[in-house]
């Protein structure tokens, strides 16, 4: 297979590398940053004439491959996905499909109209951890699901890196937090519960990472701050110890101490976490009711130590508790009383061999199988992902208005032609 890569950043390089290592060609790249463009060009052996400075330039050329990997920023996806499908490319499309509901529905419609395969990077559907949870639920391990408690623990330093200082700090230039971080969680809930969502309510705000919480005397940048030795958000503490790895790798291609110190001195990741131009929530709670009657609570929080999802799924016959960090799934069948031993099973799913709990490699494999005709459908086909995006958009509307939002009604208001 031949791929073209739009956006040779963190995500794009992961998928392209995986496909390349499996023997597939990266025939062309579009990347605005000349350093990243050159790195991708060299690594994948792309001729200079097929290295473009902008996705639009690449898409203006005759078709150069079977599929496009679209891994640019959230608000660029629509403007690139639509012409790419018209040109004949199948898509491996980063999430969010788009933060704008009308655009999400239009991309899905275009995929149907043109017959293109569009796989959305809900990588967690492919991780051994979540696959095992799904397998247990489908095999009836806890009986019919009644209610779910799901937590997305962002991790405090990750919150500061991505959603306070970084690319996804503003909902107007990127996406609201519930869309950016948790269209994955909405997707997991729909998939695990096995039903579409009927309605949502949501509450949350940006409470902590604001100027009024800055310690007295804090400077605008860590480089100039006399409090940096004692501040846990000091960029020097966040990035220097993990030079060469995420999240330090996001700051600059120059992963030397000099390079990082310069990026901290001058770049966005050296700003004081209390004095950035961030707008997204740092905590948000969403309550959901599904069409099959299952209820769920979803707690999205930047105030956790670990970066890991934790779930409790409660069924008629037992409960399933899962912790991504410890890689443990515990299934307990209910006992008739407090004295009897309840029946418990502790499962440790296979350890991941790629990022996102194994999901990064899994999704590329699935996309390849689909393109090569080895399977009829991908687990993360866009027609499934649209639901998670409607839920995330509805939750944000619910948060902003205080209303309970009906998902079908939301979809109808944002472009679905017929009420289904
Ligand atoms: N699936 C997941 O779990 C997951 C995880 C993180 C990020 N993401 C999503 O992946 C996307 C990319 O995130 P990232 O972390 O790789 O960001 P990134 O900033 O590392 O990469 C984006 C790249 O696109 C390039 N770019 C911007 N405009 C362009 C244009 N017009 N033409 C060509 N290149 C252009 C940028 O220079 C940058 O290198 C985002 O939409 C993000 O939400 C998904």
Jot down its keywords.
420 residues; Rossmann fold; Dihydrodipicolinate Reductase, domain 2; 3 domains; 6-stranded parallel β-sheet; 15 helices; 35% helix; globular; binds nicotinamide-adenine-dinucleotide
Q: Could you describe the largest sheet, including whether it forms a barrel?
A: 9 strands, mixed
Radius of gyration, whole Å: 22 Å
Any idea of the CATH class of the largest domain?
Alpha Beta
The chain-level structural class is alpha/beta
Distance between the termini: 38 Å
Rounded mean pLDDT score? 96
**What is the percentage of strand-forming residues?**
15-25%
Helix content: 25-40%
CATH level 4 superfamily of the largest domain: Dihydrodipicolinate Reductase, domain 2
Assembly of the depicted chains: single chain
* CATH topology term of the largest domain: Dihydrodipicolinate Reductase, domain 2
Description:
This protein is an alpha/beta fold and 420 residues long. The chain has three domains: 2-116, 3-Layer(aba) Sandwich (Rossmann fold); 125-209 and 279-356 and 382-413, Dihydrodipicolinate Reductase, domain 2 (2-Layer Sandwich), CATH 3.30.360; 211-270, no CATH class. It is built from 15 helices and 15 strands. It has helices at 10-21, 34-44, 55-60, 77-87, 101-114, 128-138, 156-165, 177-180, 183-193, 235-239, 248-251, 257-266, 359-371, 382-401, 407-413, and strands spanning 2-6, 25-30, 51-52, 67-70, 90-93, 118-120, 145-153, 197-205, 283-290, 295-301, 308-315, 318-323, 328-333, 343-347, 405-406. A nine-stranded mixed β-sheet has the order 14-13-12-11-7-10-9-8-15. Strands 3-2-1-4-5-6 form a six-stranded parallel β-sheet, sandwiched between helices. A hairpin with a 4-residue loop joins strand 12 (318-323) and strand 13. Helix 4 packs parallel to helix 5 (101-114) and helix 9 (183-193) packs across helix 14 (382-401). It is globular. The protein starts with a strand and ends in a 7-residue tail after the last helix. The mean pLDDT is 96. Nicotinamide-adenine-dinucleotide binds at residues 6-12, 30-33, 36, 54-55, 71-74, 76, 94-95, 121, 123, 167, 180, 356.
């Amino acid at each position: 297979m031949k791929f073209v890569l739009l956006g040779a950043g963190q995500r794009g390089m992961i998928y392209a590398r995986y496909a390349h290592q499996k023997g597939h060609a990266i025939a062309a790249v579009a990347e605005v940053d000349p350093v990243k463009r050159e790195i991708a060009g060299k690594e994948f052996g792309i001729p200079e004439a097929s290295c473009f400075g902008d996705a639009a330039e690449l898409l203006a050329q005759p078709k150069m491959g079977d599929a496009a990997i679209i891994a640019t920023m959230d608000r660029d996806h629509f403007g690139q996905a639509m012409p790419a499908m018209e040109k004949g490319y199948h898509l491996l499309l980063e999430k969010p499909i788009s933060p704008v509901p009308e655009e999400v529905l239009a991309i899905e419609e275009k995929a149907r109209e043109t017959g293109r395969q569009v796989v959305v990077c809900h990588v967690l559907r492919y991780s051994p951890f979540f696959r095992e949870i799904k397998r247990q639920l489908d095999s009836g391990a806890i009986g019919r699901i009644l209610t779910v408690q799901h937590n997305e623990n962002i991790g405090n330093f990750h919150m500061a890196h991505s959603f306070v200082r970084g690319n996804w700090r503003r909902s107007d230039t990127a996406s609201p937090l519930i869309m950016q971080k948790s269209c994955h969680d909405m997707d997991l809930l729909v998939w695990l519960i096995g039903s579409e969502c009927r309605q949502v309510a949501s509450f949350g705000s940006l409470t902590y990472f604001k100027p009024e919480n800055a310690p007295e005397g804090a400077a605008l940048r860590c480089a100039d701050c006399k409090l940096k030795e004692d501040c846990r958000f000091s960029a020097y503490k966040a990035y220097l110890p993990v030079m060469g790895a995420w999240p330090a790798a996001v700051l600059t291609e120059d992963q030397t101490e000099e390079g990082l110190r310069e990026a901290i001195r001058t770049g966005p990741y050296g700003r004081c976490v209390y004095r950035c131009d961030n707008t997204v929530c740092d905590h948000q709670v969403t309550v959901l009711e599904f069409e099959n009657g299952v209820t769920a609570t979803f707690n999205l929080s930047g105030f956790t130590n670990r970066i890991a999802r934790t779930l409790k799924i409660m069924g008629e016959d037992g409960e399933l508790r899962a912790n991504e960090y410890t890689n443990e799934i515990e299934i307990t069948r209910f006992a008739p009383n407090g004295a009897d031993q309840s029946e418990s099973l502790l499962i440790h799913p296979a350890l991941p061999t790629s990022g996102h709990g194994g999901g990064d490699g899994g999704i590329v494999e699935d996309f390849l199988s689909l393109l090569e005709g080895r399977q009829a459908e991908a687990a993360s086909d866009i027609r499934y992902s649209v639901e998670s995006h409607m839920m995330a958009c509805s939750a944000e509307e619910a948060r902003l208005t205080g209303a309970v939002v009906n998902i079908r009604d939301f979809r109808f208001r944002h472009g679905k032609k017929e009420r289904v």
